[in-house]
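Researcher: Final request for today, and then I'll write up notes for the group meeting. The sequence and the SMILES for 2-acetamido-2-deoxy-beta-D-glucopyranose follow.
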Amino acid sequence: MNVPKRKLSRYLKIAAGICILTTIFIIILMLTLPQPFVGKTQTQSQTLKILEDRPDKVADVGRGTVLLHPNRDSLLFTTVESPGPYLKIHFPHKLLQVVNDPPNGCRAGYFKPDGPQEPYAGMTREDPQMCLYFDRNLHAAVYDTIVAGMQCHHVYWFTTDNQASIINTISLHEHNWYGGGGLSEQRWPLQRVGVPLQPYLTNKFTSSAEVKFDSFIEPYFVSSNGAALMLDSYLPLFVSINSNKDSMLVFKSIFQEPYSAKSFKTGLSLSYKVCKSLSAPAVHETLSYLRLSPAAPGAPADDLLQFPIWSSRAFQEAGFNETRLIVFVHNIKKWKLPYNHLFIVGNYSKARGVFSFNENKFPHSHQLIMEWKEMQSSKIPNLFVGVEVFPHVPESGVPGSEVPLHIRYDLSVKQSLPSGQKPPMLLDITNEKAVHWFKSQLRNFRDMSVHGFLFADGHSQDIFPPGFQQSDLITNRSLLHPNQYTEMYGEIAGSVAAPTAARGFSILGSGYLAQKHGFIADAGPFRSAWDHQKGLKAVIPTTITYGLLGYPFVLTGPVGGLFLNGSAVARTPPSQELYIRWLSLATYLPVLELAWAPWFYSQEVINHARSMLEFRQFSLWPKYLSPAVEEAAKTGLPIVRPLWWVAPTDSTAQFIDCEFMLGSRLLVAPVLMDRARSRSVYLPNGSRWKDNLKNTVHHGGQWLTQYSVGLYDIATFERL
Ligand SMILES: *[C@@H]1O[C@H](CO)[C@@H](O)[C@H](O)[C@H]1NC(C)=O
Ligand SMILES: *[C@@H]1O[C@H](CO)[C@@H](O)[C@H](O)[C@H]1NC(C)=O
Ligand SMILES: *[C@@H]1O[C@H](CO)[C@@H](O)[C@H](O)[C@H]1NC(C)=O
Ligand SMILES: *[C@@H]1O[C@H](CO)[C@@H](O)[C@H](O)[C@H]1NC(C)=O
Ligand SMILES: *[C@@H]1O[C@H](CO)[C@@H](O)[C@H](O)[C@H]1NC(C)=O
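Model: Predicted protein-2-acetamido-2-deoxy-beta-D-glucopyranose complex:
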């Protein structure tokens, strides 16, 4: 993997030359293009400010319009440059009347202002450009906005008929689409997934045939032709993606379980923004800045990313105790493997809602953690301990509290839960006292010994025992939307971890609108399998999808995955081959977790693990990872990127989900098949690529077939 110095400097010179030429070209392009409607609103100048260090990304595409299709069944989004519409949104509703440039708004009273602060600051609505009137008292208004030089539109559907539904669909045939959320079976692009219509909620992964949305979702979609679509954050939304291979992306607002009309006081709506720029990376970069405006998200502490995170995930069953933990740490040191953090995941406390170690099983927890932490000498680095926590109160409630601090359920609605099942004792996140109690538990725990928290669960689906819906919940204040539960959990995590240097020691287990916290996003658990259902093949599409959603610091579970039986972890370790291939891939990912240890296998695996981890620490980190982390901290841009990042118009690159770019210079092509000793590698068009494994140079826009890769090797290519 070493490049001779002299050669490297020549490549750097060529790369620098290309960079300068590109910049000059872009500047000329920008000068010759018509100027956007500068200074239209105050917010616009603010958004431009955050973009000013990247002028090449402000792409003026000229003023476009939204047209009605002659069939009167879809909206056509156009720009002045493109001959046809760049996006078509179909609706199945019966159109009665269209008014263009309405003098007094679309019966202004019907169109409520936005709810809570939506992301993408600066996309204010002014007068509508078009009003559409449908049967069932359904209206739609289309608004124009220019944001950071991009033409955007806000489309707002609304009805006072609570029995109605509002449906909009996009064909996945015309362009490739990405984003929308983590999935329990992740593929790339969205044409390859199959998500049946379901409430748009965060879910905990369970193996099941039906594909579900996963722990982190964001109603943000990008297409290969540079269009982006962002739905508002709190809609009674159902989504399907290529369900039954229909090649459709379907958005449906309806008051149906778990949403109830009672919780949405302002009527039924479906509301989204559409923007268009020159390419997918260009539209994404601009919108990332807007999403995070005005503050940069920051990043977890370097130590969490540079070193592996060791965890007890693989032995979290009932027999888990202090002795096992001591042996584990002893072995890490004995085999001279790099370490810095250990996360204790699993059954360490007496019960959910109890934030301390079970003294019977961990009699010396405090002493041990202090000892590991303070082991500071040049020979023995220190080890920081974090623990997994859940948004629960104790089974018997919080002692001394007059009001219940957990979410309660209106059991009169449902006669009873299925056979003897009790509703979970989830923290009532809307109750200030409950939040205060939870935070003080965590602070006490931290003051006693531990350094960080893995905020497990927090999925919005968790708050609904089977058959319950939003209006059956008894909370202190009403939740605006189930996903607000996930969002507020992230806020708590942010506030517990942020004020101290320990900020970066948090890992978030679920996320909605949580990009601003800059935490590690735990996309796991992953399965010990080679497949796309949270097996090895899902690692890349998951990481690049999370990256697009604004979560650059993605953790895809421990190397080798886990055998899951329901939510329990079986004790079977992954096969040696799966472990080795997974380790090679994870070495190049933003966060690397080790739960199955290399010494479970053989001396050869231990040596390999040590050399990969040292390579990550001493070569990859300074050269590629650290600069990408720094950029992500400032901009929210992904660390691990899809191939189209460097070749937006290359239609093959738009499909690849078995290779990725680390930053913009290194292409990584791991082997993802059992017993394979070769693979095909696609090199994106428009660049030359230096093969680090075989020390040759290839031009882009071609497949290398039957490219041989030994069991302990991984193919990587430097973009020249
Ligand atoms: C966790 O440990 C407690 C006490 O040691 C035990 O009662 C409980 O069953 C354990 N839970 C699991 C999931 O193993
Ligand atoms: C942990 O469990 C093992 C057996 O499973 C036992 O030998 C050991 O004494 C236990 N240690 C503690 C601290 O309970
Ligand atoms: C909400 O919680 C506060 C304490 O945080 C309590 O005083 C109040 O009575 C609660 N209200 C309801 C409706 O539960
Ligand atoms: C999964 O767990 C159930 C009980 O929790 C057990 O009966 C079953 O044998 C387990 N399956 C496997 C494959 O371990
Ligand atoms: C590759 O890029 C070159 C220009 O850089 C272009 O002429 C060619 O058509 C592209 N090939 C493909 C397959 O996109």
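Model: The pocket of 2-acetamido-2-deoxy-beta-D-glucopyranose (ligand 1) is lined by residues 317-318, 347, 358 (CB under 6 Å). Confidence is low (pLDDT under 50) at residues 1-8, 14-61.
Researcher: Thanks, that's everything.
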